[in-house]
Amino acid sequence: MSSDDPRVLIAGGGPVGLLCAWILGRRGIGVRLFDNNARLQTDPRAATTHPATLDLLEEGGLADDMARVGLVAPIFQFWDRPSNRLVAEFDHAILSKDTRHPFVVQCEQFKTARLLLDRIEKLPNVEVLFNHEVMDVNHTADAVSVDVRSTQTTSKHTGEYLIGADGGRSIVRKRSEIPFEGFTWPERFIVLTTPFDFETHRGYSYRSYFAEPGAWCNCFKVSADGPPGLWRTVFPTEPAQDDASLMSDAGVQNRLQRFFPDERPYEIVHRNLYVTHQRVAATFRKGRVLLAGDAAHVNNPIGGMGLNGGIQDAVNLADKLSEVLLEGKSDRLLDLYNLQRRTVAIEFVQEQSIANKKRLEESDPATRQRNLDELSRIAENPDRARQFLLRTAMIASQQRVSAMTLN
Fold first, then answer.
1. What pTM did the predictor assign?
2. Domains of the chain (ranges, CATH numbers)
């Protein structure tokens, strides 16, 4: 391996891959990152950044910048949609002794990626190559290489480690023959974005969850290009319904009007339909190949835990990889990364996001009422509310990580 070769290769130029590159690069490690897109993607995706994640992003003022370009949201609500009753309201201020950020920041992931890329461009030892798609992976005991296709040619790149942060369809995971275990939800999810001000007209907080038998809705605000911002609504769809009717003007208006009746049609500025999975890779480490973010785990969006889990992966992995490469520590640290982050993906992200969905869509009247009553009781009890928020804010999962060691 020549002195010009990077020590770490990264597939995937989303927030997770860019965060890994930035942390490693700030510590003097040579990094080369490949992304198959022509530029940073700007399509609306995940936005919620939880307190535990913000605590990890203070370095270089990143968390502060995310708050500046996003929205600070200390409160979230649960509503019973049929009765339009506020069931429970939670204020992260109760976590003021547990986190330096007792609030959520609604910062769209493309903004986080932009903030990271701006920082990376100041690092001479980090190279970001857009229009470069990783096609194959080969690793030995001493190195790992990738075959990369650009618009003009195919080339081979070699490093000491490869991070696969290339999304749910990860080529790195597939070429490394790592199973992606779990299931796919039968219903697809539809996202409808509108400038309608749900706070002013309905009294909803920036993050609100609506329960209805057999259905549900997430409704949350993002800053978009600036005041007044936009509101995203996320709904499940009927599995048998065709794309054309789901995405039609009549279809999206009917869906919004059924949940949130209004005398005027809603202005829709963006609509998207997607398949949702609950899957976790069989391992986050295979030799010199490491997985993070959606390449390692995917889940439904209720609770906003997916990207947060990925960012937490990135910080954990970059810290451990830095110790291996710079301090000569045993690469068993990477086995600890696998143990810690895979455990969290299963015990917290998967379990919590599935429970969130089941709670909102519960159809049995007695079970549904018990669920709603229990949420009300939790919100009214400060000790129980704090315990509930420690889990939803992902602080409990970070505490679990800190307590885990290798035998």
1. 0.96
2. 8-72+107-181+278-361 (3.50.50.60)
